[in-house]
Design brief:
The complex is a heterotetramer, with 2 copies of chain A (about 240 residues) and 2 copies of chain B (about 220 residues).
Chain A lengths: L8 H4 L8 E4 L9 H10 L4 E4 L9 H7 L3 E6 L9 H7 L4 E4 L2 H12 L4 E4 L13 E4 L2 E7 L3 E12 L4 E2 L8 H7 E12 L18 E4 L6 H6 L6
Parallel strand pairs in A: 1-2, 1-8, 2-3, 3-4, 8-10, 10-11
Antiparallel strand pairs in A: 5-7, 6-7, 8-9
Chain B lengths: L11 H9 L7 E4 L3 H4 L11 E4 L3 E4 L22 E7 L2 H9 L5 E4 L3 E3 L4 E2 L15 H7 L2 E5 L11 E2 L14 E3 L3 E6 L2 E7 L5 H6 L5 E2 L5
Parallel strand pairs in B: 1-2, 1-5, 5-8, 6-9, 8-10, 12-13
Antiparallel strand pairs in B: 2-3, 3-4, 6-7, 10-11, 11-12
Chain lengths: ~240, ~220, ~240, ~220
């Protein structure tokens, strides 16, 4: 029988290895799987390449992972956010490399990676510094850049509700990169406020079908980054 | 007076049943039209398999009871089906992202010809005037991790379907992993057909005579 | 105020012009917008390029449009279906050209067209007759074909419920190509069994956001192709 | 004794209000962070405009009442917002399909520099040691049908922001249609800046002196 539920976040991230590429869901704090990230900090894997739109906030969640020195490369669109104080130091000291990708190209690269598309063409960033080094090709008189699909070893995501088959629905704008990253990682791990029995989710409204998900873990009352940052929390 | 042994090989259902043994618990599977559809009826006790139909449903169930069908709940063969608990609907691009992206574990397809390098021809005989129709066959074999073929060992005219190289238009190159016929289970390994199992009462010479390429027999493996 | 509802199917398809490219939703009969297609037959536009997975069934809906001689080109993956008796004659007589595209490539080409992606690479059809003439490119040691995005002048689709902003939800496997075609046509027209007020559809479950839809029309009791074909109906 | 005329130009809100006049009924609009956000408050009576935020919401509403916000309902600037009736949530790839696919009618952005050929620089000053951050700006200007810029006519140091060619790193080439500044409304036409409207009490010489490229004045149009 198919049961993808694991007991806790520690078990969920136990096999993340040094040097892994890890996609982490969320746009700012919306959709950030803080409990899974904290479990990953405790677990100890290092030299990670992390894919996320941002670089975290304060000293919790993704920012805490970066602060702990575990991230050797960030692939993101917007590393410079309010309260994003950890990444600049790691970047300037050369500890953490940065691959800056326009947000829509980042999203599409992840979708392509999950959909078996090795490369596609996009008009975004033509003629800009972020288009430098990319192959340029003209279609119908307009220039486009070739972008590569992006895949990962793991994805850590936050859903609202999941079931034992790994079907997931999200909450409002916390959906963002989650459904894409779920498709692009070898091992997709979802924390959800509730994990329900098979058949409780309406087949018409499932956003991530279970085929893309390897493990689900219940985190009934997930913490919010902004609350932790406002309280001055520093993890661990 | 000795009884003349009648060589018959496996029935369609037996081929499907044999194939079902190789599908692991928890697999995500796409079944082609025809004999492959029968595989769903033979999942061994204790295993749970989730069926994908490329027209937008994961968790496809059995056909509906007579009179209870829904013309908007169909499978890739356009027959009415049901959705099991835990099912999900999605659009065609997401469905083929599952296929092309390597998320399905197994697909089981029929064949016109399979070559010893694993090339598959199953969409067109190339006959002049025929209406070419491909559907999702090329996507499935290009994307699904493991491709199984179930087919009669020969055509109705006794021509081999397992051949050195396909003469019909190809569906894909070097994609078939294992073939289940009425006579044998045969793997494609390093550009050769390797007999894995013979059907009851069938010997390898009998199979070899009906195969258009050299078989590596069981004994040599 | 935004109100995309039009009075009837005649008004909905009034501006389809000769020579237009028209995407028509549906996989077999599931999702086929029969009433819109019949209105298009009455309207008279001809020399159409039609994009659909199939070529219709019997002599109703898409098959009737083909039978009426209005389709000069079909772009589809599976023209040869049970009860698909009209297309073969038009194809063999040279009246209707056929562009045969593998189903997944067809779906992705439509999505790409709607997403501003002029071309992408796919492993499907490499080494086959359907890959002939396509550009081959190797990524990571594997061969892929370049496929182009596909767009249209009009899309005719069938939803379950729509609202006045053009938000749409679909019914079971009638969803299929609908959400893709909605994005790829200049003018997307949706028939839905009910057209409801703004706010009645849950924002979490909308499949096609209204931005992709130009017109909605209520067709409360849509006909089913299989029922019409079984009854021997020939439209008009 | 004559009164000395004090030249001030439009306020931030007045610039936003002027821009809002050019957004048609039924438009789908993306507003950048800063002055562009103010445009939403000035939609003329009788028009309905639907706002898109690239992090996955169409039908974005005003900020929530204090204490009623949801940290999982935010805009692209990561501020809490609300969803209007008729709204829809979707994932990032679908959101940027709307943008890249040309489905949004208008985006309104801030600028560091705009060139007379419509090049925009608004994401980086290129300063050494700065953390480069681009977000969705390059996608928006590459994909949205009409790109408006709202900006002060000059920097705080009085340097022109409307220039012959940008010196800051580009966001995109030849993309800006119209610029709303405190001093004027200016179109980009055939590689030149064309004055469409002057703010009350402002004359074209005053604007020209503060512009880094030759203006086509109103009189010549």
């Amino acid at each position: 029988m198919i049961n993808k539920k694991v007991a806790n976040v520690e078990e969920a991230v136990a096999d993340v290895f040094d040097g892994a590429t890890v996609m982490i869901g969320g746009f700012g704090e919306a959709g950030s799987p803080i409990e899974l990230i904290h479990a990953l900090i405790d677990q100890g894997a290092t030299d990670l390449t992390v894919v996320n739109n941002n670089t975290g906030s304060g000293e919790v969640g993704l920012a805490a992972l970066i602060k702990a020195g575990r991230v050797s490369k960030m692939i993101c669109s917007y590393p410079r956010s309010t309260n994003s104080t950890v990444f600049p130091d790691k970047y300037r000291s050369g500890h953490t490399e940065l691959e800056l990708v326009p947000q829509g190209t980042l999203a599409e690269r992840i979708r392509a990676g999950g959909a078996g598309i090795p490369a596609f063409y996009t008009p975004t960033a033509v003629g800009t510094p972020l288009g430098e080094g990319m192959e340029v090709r003209t279609f119908d008189g307009r220039q486009y850049l070739m972008a590569y699909g992006l895949t990962a070893d793991f994805a850590l995501l936050k859903g609202k509700t999941a079931d034992y088959h790994g079907n997931v629905v999200y909450n409002k704008t916390a959906r963002n990169f989650g459904p894409l990253m779920a498709t692009a990682a070898k091992v997709t791990i979802v924390q959800a406020a509730s994990v329900v029995s098979i058949g409780e989710l309406d087949p018409e409204v499932i956003v991530t079908p279970g085929i893309f998900v390897k493990r689900v873990v219940a985190v009934p009352d997930p913490q919010h980054e902004s609350t932790l940052v406002a309280a001055g929390v520093s993890y661990p | 007076m000795t009884e003349q042994k009648e060589i018959v090989g496996l029935t369609r259902d037996q081929m499907a049943q044999r194939c079902a043994l190789d599908i692991h618990d928890g697999s995500y599977v796409n079944l082609g039209i025809g004999i492959p559809e029968l595989v769903a009826g033979y999942v061994p006790e204790g295993r749970e398999v989730i069926y994908h139909t490329e027209n937008g449903l994961l968790g496809m169930g059995q056909p509906p009871e007579p009179g209870k069908g829904n013309p908007e709940l169909i499978n890739a063969g356009k027959k009415q089906v049901t959705a099991n608990p835990g099912a999900a609907y999605f659009h065609h691009a997401d469905s083929f992202a599952m296929i092309r992206g390597g998320h399905l574990d197994v697909c089981v397809l029929g064949a016109l010809q399979v070559s010893q390098t694993g090339d598959l021809a199953n969409w067109s005989t190339g006959a002049p005037g025929a209406i070419p129709s491909v559907g999702g066959a090329m996507d499935l074999i290009a994307g699904v991790k493991t491709v199984y073929v179930i087919t009669q060992h020969t055509t109705r005219d006794g021509e081999p379907k397992l051949v050195e190289s396909c003469t019909f238009p190809l569906t894909g190159l070097g994609v078939v992993h294992r073939i289940y016929t009425d006579l044998a289970v045969i793997d494609v390994v390093d550009g050769q057909f390797k007999v894995v199992e013979l059907s009851p009462g069938i010997d390898v010479d009998y199979v070899q005579q009906r195969t258009g390429a050299t078989l590596i027999p069981l004994a040599d493996t």
